[in-house]
Design goal:
With about 950 residues, the chain is α/β, with parallel strands linked by helices. The chain contains 38 helices and 30 strands.
Length: about 950
């Protein structure tokens, strides 16, 4: 070891720990190394100190080493540490990424540092900067930080290809760092490392999983904060843990819920701050400093705090609701007492029975070291960008050369020649690359440079969509594109604390047309796009735990050995499960209710997505597009306009695995998610400009390599077809069975899966009376036109103004035949009325318009203000209003009108398609 380095080590922390010693030995012997270790193990120094040693010993010329980190890992503490070592050793260390100033970049080009810290995307840039290429040829080491953040996405695929481009001009060793993963050998091969270095010690964890129930004191807190007692109980328990242990990190799964939880605690008067990636740098630094200096007791945060940001010693980690993955729990828990030899203590506070059981399983898997595998992905669109990048470097290349270089990268080792030619064809058709038939050489064409630099990042540009409320005609907010991708027409979602139902998604104008639904229980919180999927292995283990709990409680407790839990809470979970049908690792249950069909299935989000698409496709074939489907970790939920026969759905599940992929592919092609993905894939291929907006992009690229790549991406990220096939094969072999249940009211677990998002609402879940009051107030605020069907007098007014008018008479002619109608209906009616008054005959369509408003006027005359309310509600024309007014009064009428609205919205697309086929209007038009 170089004397300067030995002196700096003694000053910094005395001596190297065992992990750092082992890494030093392997890297110094000339091997490529993968370092796998938990948070707080000293991974960064284990990777960089042997590199600094080689630079000092051998006088390596700049740029001697590249340190590549995803932006998440590129935090201030990492930079401060690396720069400290650089100053002590006399080694220049600098950073270059998208925010680096032009002046700084120019300086680095003239006088580059010995270690350059970059992002994966920056490597794609500097490889094309001619003055830098001579320095890049000096690179002897490439360090890749947080590999688990790169392996399972296209950023990682792009990095691997760019490392092969670098290997064309430099000989270097690869050093990777990652937290614990379930497939270490595959990650090692992904990096092309020769050896794995791990710490000889086993990190100690203590996990407490809690499922609190309200006590008397929680009632008072609930009233104070305007929450349900259940949420108040969780807040009370959370703060008891903070008070018991001291300095705490409280992790949530989404940014918006971090904000909500922090807001609740601050309202209660507790010293907390919030920390997540969407906050400004200044706000994050202030929050970190406040915790470090003891000004606050807890930091409410997301994955932004999983990495090694220096906030001083943390005494405890609290995870609010299930962490959803084993890797995630271990990474977060490791922030507490993270020094070597200390036991990290973490609490998980859960909100419902499935959340609780899932957290117990995850904690047990963590103690057993059963971590999730990260799934590598390639990408033909990334390959296209790589080909253009190579040609920017080398100007002309033999046609087979990019193919040969690409196949050296782990995720492209199985790349077929035909697939490669398909990619070349897209580039040639897009006039980015040309092929000289005589010489066999590829060359660049005009537009290639713009394409290359516009597509340096594989992360799609996040574009917000406007949300348009059709009743008021106003834009009421914006949604991130990543969330919109998972929306379908007919689904409810929560935004600004209110529930909206999607009427139409307009891709061309990036507009979502909505109407308030008041269906708060079944609405998707608008931040759910951030939630990571629950893996198959975790969900399947939850199924096993449910089976054991239901039939042998003592044996089930044994499955959880080592996890700290309260027996009374586990017994309460058992009672909740037994309250109705439930799935296990051996049983799928199809439960049908009048408003929804729930397939209880413990297979995780992505596998359940495959099952959901399969069943949805069969239902569409039989009934049309009248259902919306939503896959969750332990269920697939269909919103239905009528009660389905569960035996029919059972037959669909026994259809066999052979046709699953083709059925799922067909279903995906008709989804908004597919169009959104295809648009981004086509842009990465260069087939579309970055600012392109194509109305029916799926038709444009049907049957092409772009379609194949879109499906591959969806299979990797959203829909696990292989696990779906496994489930169908298990059914066929008798290893799984399907039970059915026909019920008037949903079971506890069905209701739970139908009511996603209730926890997130600031005021808790609304009671039925509150929902009816909100619905009635919305109708009162609705604008209608009052029109005299005798003389044509008309006036726009709010429904609320009509409630107090006792004698509804036309101010012009005194007639009582006043109709309440939509402005469009009145526009159609007035010229028809003129014809009637002139004694002219009416056509068939005019006759329908005339009779419709006459019937509306008759209803107002007979039923009074209740008829006004009925005609003002969405989807209720005079015929339906007459039927409902004859059957219901008061609150019962409001309930019926609400259900009619929801049914009309769910089925409106079906009616539209039927009308397109027949050329006829459906029986009802909305008032």
């Amino acid at each position: 070891m170089h004397p300067l380095l030995r002196k700096a080590i003694e000053e910094r922390f005395g001596r190297l720990n065992r992990l750092q010693q082992d890494a030093f030995k392997e890297i110094s012997s000339g091997k490529s190394v993968l370092i796998i270790a938990p948070t707080g193990s000293g991974k960064t120094e284990a990777a960089v100190l042997p590199v600094f040693n080689e630079i000092l010993k051998n006088g390596l010329r700049p740029i001697s080493a590249l340190y590549i980190a995803p932006l998440k890992a590129l935090n201030r503490d990492l930079l401060d540490r690396l720069e400290w070592w650089g100053r002590k050793l006399g080694i220049s260390v600098e950073v270059r990424h998208g925010d680096t100033s032009a002046h700084r970049k120019a300086k680095q080009t003239k006088k580059p540092p010995q270690m350059l810290i970059i992002t994966p995307e920056t490597l794609g840039v500097i490889l094309t900067v001619k003055p830098l290429r001579k320095y890049l040829s000096n690179v002897k080491f490439v360090i890749v930080d947080e590999i688990s953040e790169l392996v399972d996405n296209k950023r990682g695929a792009q990095l691997l290809l760019n490392l092969e481009r670098l290997a064309e001009i430099a000989e270097f060793k690869r050093i990777g760092m990652t937290a614990t993963v379930g497939n270490e050998e595959e990650v090692k091969e992904w990096l092309k490392a020769e050896v794995i270095v791990k710490p000889p010690w086993k990190k100690g964890y203590r996990f407490h999983v809690l499922y609190p129930t309200p006590d008397k004191g929680d009632e008072e807190l609930a009233r104070k904060l305007n929450l349900s007692p259940e949420i108040a109980a969780r807040l009370r328990l959370l703060w008891e843990i903070v008070e018991k242990h001291g300095k705490a990190l409280v992790f949530t799964n989404t940014r918006q819920f971090a904000e909500i939880l922090a807001h609740r605690l601050k309202t209660w008067g507790k010293p907390v701050e919030v920390h997540h990636g969407s906050l400004s740098k200044e706000a994050r630094i202030a929050a970190e400093r406040a915790l470090k200096e003891g000004k606050i007791k807890a930091l409410i945060c997301t994955s932004s705090m999983e990495l090694g940001i220096d906030i001083g010693d943390v005494d405890v980690v609290i995870q609010y609701m299930s962490p959803r993955q084993v890797n995630r729990l271990v990474q977060r828990a490791g922030r507490a007492k993270h020094r070597i030899g200390e036991v990290s203590e973490a609490y998980v506070i859960t909100s419902n029975v499935e959340d609780y059981l899932q957290s117990l399983v995850i904690a047990k898997h963590a103690l057993e070291g059963r971590f999730e595998a990260v799934e590598p992905i390639g990408g033909l669109d990334v390959l296209a960008h790589f080909i253009v990048g190579l040609l920017i470097e080398h100007k002309r290349l033999p046609r087979e050369r990019p193919y040969e270089i690409a196949r050296r990268a782990h995720v492209y080792r199985g790349l077929g020649w035909e697939d490669y030619l398909d990619v070349l064809k897209v580039l040639e058709d897009s006039k980015l690359v040309g092929h000289d038939e005589e010489t066999g050489l590829l060359y660049l064409r005009r537009g290639a440079f713009q394409y290359y630099y516009e597509n340096l990042s594989t992360i799609p540009d996040e574009v917000s969509w406007r949300v348009f409320e059709v009743g008021s005609g106003h834009i009421i907010g914006r949604l991130d594109e990543s969330f919109v991708m998972d929306l379908e027409e007919g689904l409810d979602f929560v935004m600004n604390g209110r529930s909206w139902i999607v009427l139409r998604i307009d891709d061309e104008s990036r507009l979502i047309k909505v109407r308030e639904s008041k269906s708060l229980e079944s609405a998707i919180p608008s931040w759910e796009g951030e939630l990571i999927p629950v893996p198959f292995e975790v969900a399947f283990s939850v199924g096993r735990l449910k089976r054991e709990l239901a039939f042998d409680f003592e044996k089930a407790k044994g499955l959880l050995e080592g996890v700290d839990f309260r027996e009374e809470e586990l017994r309460r979970a058992v009672e909740e499960i037994r309250g109705g049908p439930f799935s296990t690792d051996r049983d799928i249950v199809v439960e049908s209710t009048p408003e929804a069909l729930v397939i209880h299935a413990d297979f995780g989000n992505r596998a359940n997505e495959a099952l959901g698409r399969l069943v949805h496709s069969f239902l569409i074939l039989r009934y049309g597009r009248v259902f919306s489907v939503r896959a969750q970790a332990h269920a697939v939920v269909f919103k239905t306009p009528f009660q389905l026969n569960p035996e029919e759905v059972k037959r669909y599940l026994y259809g066999g695995p052979e046709s699953l992929e083709s059925i799922v592919a067909r279903a995906l092609r008709d989804s908004h998610a597919y169009r959104w993905r295809m648009l981004n894939v086509a842009k990465r291929f260069g087939a579309l400009r970055r600012d392109a907006r194509i109305r029916r992009v799926e038709r444009l690229f049907e049957g092409t390599v772009i379609e194949r790549e879109t499906l591959n991406e969806l299979y990797h990220d959203k829909v696990d077809v292989s696990k779906g096939k496994l489930i169908l094969e298990m059914l066929k072999a008798g290893l799984l069975r399907v039970k059915t249940a026909l019920r008037r009211e949903p079971s506890t677990l069905a209701r739970l899966n139908m009511t996603v998002g209730g926890e997130f609402l600031l005021g808790g879940v609304l009671e039925r009376d509150e929902i009816l009051e909100l619905f009635r107030n919305r109708l009162l605020d609705h604008e209608v036109v009052l029109v005299c069907t005798n003389c044509g007098w008309h006036s726009k007014t709010k429904v609320s103004r009509l409630e107090s008018i006792k004698d509804r008479e036309c101010p012009r002619c005194g007639s009582r035949m006043l109709a309440v109608a939509h402005p469009i209906d009145v526009e159609e009616f007035l010229p028809v009325l003129d014809k009637v008054r002139r004694g002219e005959p009416l056509r068939g369509d005019e006759e329908r318009v005339y009779r419709k408003l006459l019937k509306a006027a008759d209803l107002v005359d007979s039923y009074g203000f209740e008829a006004v309310l009925a005609l003002a509600s969405y989807g209720t024309g005079p015929d339906t209003a007459a039927r409902l007014l004859g059957q219901y009064k008061g609150d019962a009428l409001l309930v019926a009108l609400m259900e009619r609205e929801r049914e009309f919205i769910r089925t409106r697309r079906f009616w539209a398609e039927d009308r397109d086929r027949t050329g006829e209007q459906p029986g009802e038009n909305n008032a």
